[in-house]
Structure formats: C-alpha cells, structure tokens
Write a structure and sequence with these properties.
Oligomer: single chain
Largest sheet: 5 strands, parallel
Distance between the termini: 43 Å
Radius of gyration: 17 Å
Structural class: alpha/beta
Helix content: 55-70%
CATH architecture of the largest domain: 3-Layer(aba) Sandwich
Order of helices and strands: HHHHEHEHEHEHEH
Bound molecules: cobalamin
CATH class of the largest domain: Alpha Beta
Length: 210
C-alpha cells in the first residue's frame, strides 16, 4: 500500500518521477483519483504557494513543483474523463492574456470533459479576440476563463466586453475562476458563473446550460 503522504511531499519537493510512480501505484491499487487530487496534490501546490509568498521558495522551485504536478495529473486525467455520454455542451476554456498558469485550467477542463462536455482548449495567454472567435466560429456554448494573477484578472472583463460587442451577450455564457477570482468579481464584470474549484465548475456549467 502506498503512503499517500509521500505524494504530497513529492509534489511539494518537485520530485516528478516519484509523484508519477506514486500516483500510478495508487491508481493501480484502486485509489480514487479525485481523492488523490483533493487530499494530496492540490494541498501540496497550496503549500508551494505559501512557501513562495514566505520567500522560502522561488520561481525555480515553483516550476519544478508545477512539473511534478502536471506529470502526475496526466495519469489522473484519463480517469476523470468518463466514457462516451452524449455531449452536455461545448466549452471553450483558456487562461487569460498575459497569464501562463494552466494547472487549474487543465484540471477544470478534465473535469468538464469527465462531466460530458466537449472541450476546446485554447491554452494559455488567450486574447479576448480568441475567446470571441471560439464562440462565434467554433460554436462554444460556454467561455471558461482562468486567471491566477491579480494583474491578469482585468483580461476577464475585457473579454466579457468583447463578447458583448460581438453581439454574443446571452448567446454564450461566461464562467470564470482561478485563485484570486471571487464571486464578487464575477458579479462586477458581468460573468454568468464562478467556482473556486473544478467540480464546482461542472455544476455551474450544467446550470448555465440548463
Ligand atoms: C505553479 C505556479 C506557477 C508556475 C505555473 C506553471 C503552470 N504551468 O501552471 C510558474 C512557475 C510558471 C509560475 C509563474 C509565475 N507566478 Co505563479 N504560482 C504557481 C502556484 C504555486 C500554484 C498555482 C497552481 O497551479 N495551483 C493549483 C491549481 C489546481 O489551483 P488553481 O489554479 O487555483 O485552480 C483551481 C481553482 O482556482 C479553480 N479554477 C482555476 N481556473 C478556473 C477556471 C474556471 C472557469 C473555473 C470555474 C474554476 C477555475 O479550479 C481549480 C481546481 O480546483 C501559485 C500559488 C497558489 N497557491 O495559487 C503561484 C502564484 C499564482 N504565482 C504568482 C506569481 C507572482 C507568479 C509570477 C509573476 C512569478 C514571477 N515573479 O515570475 C509568474 C507569472 C507568469 C505568468 N505570466 O503567468 C502569485 C500571484 C500573486 C498575485 N496576487 O497575482 C502566486 C499566487 C504565488 C504567490 N503566493 O505569490 N507560477
């Protein structure tokens, strides 16, 4: 039996090979992928953030922890993606302009996919124009934006405005999230939905398209 506390430590210390092999062993042993994420991997990234804030970790440590998290997430992702059900709608998701954080965005995308949504992943550093194009030309029902920096959050408002200007208000729903984002901010910029976690994102997307 794997000691899952080691998974927390592996992500925290950026030990990608151990993080991957611990996740693989746990999954092979029937562990719940959601639990691996919620109890060990996400708290480890939260601790990485705390250490960064306390000047105990610097950008290189952030990067290697993020790499360990991403590698382990690749093994978990297929497990989150349920087989086959009919599409619940099309979601175009991306991290806003100027922002390169994509771990949370990828997690939300995987959970939405698992929840039966078709996903158009626009990646990181996505301009308002690209979000609008996904709605207009690729038929997205929901635009989902992620921001991890207070300096990039205004890009969410710019995108909401661009969607309005393109005449798509009401036709496409907007959902936002990311560590600094709040319900209050969502209300202020006129977004239709907000969640502070990936499973909440699925619930909100369903509500928006109900
Ligand atoms: C990993 C990390 C990085 C990695 C990113 C790697 C990658 N590929 O993503 C690297 C090293 C590249 C990085 C760079 C930087 N980072 Co950084 N980073 C982090 C860190 C430690 C973890 C983020 C993370 O992945 N969390 C885990 C995921 C699972 O959580 P999450 O993203 O919040 O997502 C969840 C929810 O928010 C929600 N969610 C997310 N998106 C969405 C979208 C929708 C639609 C919905 C509904 C929900 C939702 O669901 C997710 C799952 O539960 C955070 C600290 C923290 N605790 O947040 C700092 C942090 C975000 N970074 C920070 C900073 C300052 C930077 C840099 C400016 C550092 C520098 N000096 O260069 C650069 C900026 C680069 C850029 N232009 O984007 C600050 C931001 C401060 C601020 N107030 O703006 C933080 C908070 C660290 C800190 N405490 O100071 N970073």
């Amino acid at each position: 039996m794997t000691d899952l506390q080691e998974l927390y430590t592996a992500v925290l210390e950026g030990d990608a090979p151990s993080a991957k092999s611990l996740v693989q062993t746990a999954l092979d042993g029937g562990a719940d992928p959601q639990e691996l994420l919620a109890k060990y991997m996400i708290p480890a990234m939260d601790e990485v953030g705390r250490l960064f804030e306390a000047n105990e970790y610097f950008v290189p440590e952030l990067l290697i922890a993020a790499r360990a998290m991403k590698g382990a997430l690749e093994l978990i992702r297929p497990k989150l993606v349920a087989a086959g059900a009919k599409s619940a709608g099309k979601v175009a998701i991306g991290t806003v302009r100027g922002d390169l954080h994509d771990i949370g965005k990828n997690l939300v995308a995987a959970m939405l996919e698992g929840g039966g949504f078709d996903i158009i992943d626009l990646g990181v550093d996505v301009s308002p124009e690209k979000f609008v194009e996904a709605a207009r030309e690729k038929g997205a029902d929901v635009i989902a934006m992620s921001a991890l920096l207070t300096t990039t959050m205004p890009g969410m408002k710019t995108t909401v405005d661009a969607i309005d200007q393109a005449g798509l208000k009401g036709k496409v729903k907007v959902m936002i999230g990311g560590a600094p984002v709040t319900q209050r901010f969502a209300d202020e910029i006129g977004a239709d939905g907000f969640s502070d976690n990936a499973s909440g994102a699925v619930r909100i997307a369903r509500q928006l398209l109900a």
